[in-house]
Design brief:
Largest sheet: none
Number of strands: 0
Radius of gyration: 24 Å
Length: 230
């Protein structure tokens, strides 16, 4: 947009080749479970630690913790399985409300390795089977936490940042061609400007402006509530 340089010229081709290789090897679990490079025992320099760290981040599809091989300290396969069963029992008794228990959050962190083993199993389990084994994993809160451990990315933060960054460009597009738009779009843009740049959520604002352009009702996408409601 307006002369912006996207990528470094060869990055797009490199990503396409990398994605293609990963896609071809997608059903080959052994390709993804990489072994860290061996380091001599007498090497204890920072460079060797850096090498070990880099080797640990070679999982496929951008993952840094695809198939952990070690359980948390003081945990055994039996103790982790017991925690999984307790969570299944809690969910069957209390449903999603049980997620508010601090113990459940701690158990989900402790059993991450077992969750990955279940997901990476060959043949892969069905979604229903995973739901039966790990019911809390299918709640947004724990699914996002699992994704964060898997990729090192906080998906909520990344999504908000991306919406704000791209939202600014969308609003800039509308503002640069103000005379072309009908009353609904102009009204939205006026309200956004009156709110002040510091108080604007550019991601939400760009969505509202786009909905106005397509003559969509706001309540079709947003749940409107009174700020004074409890």
């Amino acid at each position: 947009m307006e002369g912006d340089l996207i990528g470094c010229g060869y990055g797009s081709l490199l990503n396409q080749i990398k994605t293609r290789v990963e896609h071809v090897n997608r059903d080959n679990t052994l390709v993804r479970v990489r072994k860290p490079k061996r380091i001599n025992e007498n090497e204890s320099t920072p460079s060797s630690e850096s090498t070990a760290s880099k080797c640990a981040k070679t999982d496929g599809y951008g993952c840094i913790n695809w198939h952990p091989v070690d359980l948390p300290e003081d945990e055994t396969p039996e103790s982790v399985e017991e925690k999984r069963k307790e969570m299944v029992k809690l969910f069957s008794q209390e449903g999603p409300r049980a997620a508010e228990r601090g113990q459940v959050e701690e158990w989900m962190k402790t059993t991450y390795a077992s969750q990955r083993y279940a997901i990476n199993n060959n043949p892969p389990p069905s979604i229903d089977e995973l739901k039966d084994q790990w019911p809390f994993l299918f709640m947004k809160r724990f699914l996002c936490a699992h994704f964060n451990t898997l990729t090192g990315i906080d998906v909520n933060t990344r999504l908000t940042e991306s919406l704000n960054r791209k939202g600014k460009k969308v609003l800039h597009f509308f503002e640069c061609q103000l005379s072309r738009w009908k009353k609904d779009v102009k009204t939205v843009l006026k309200d956004i400007n009156q709110a002040g740049k510091e108080d604007v959520d550019y991601g939400v604002a760009s969505i509202i402006a786009t909905m106005a352009y397509f003559k969509e009702k706001e309540d079709a996408l947003f749940l409107l509530a009174d700020q004074t409601d409890t």
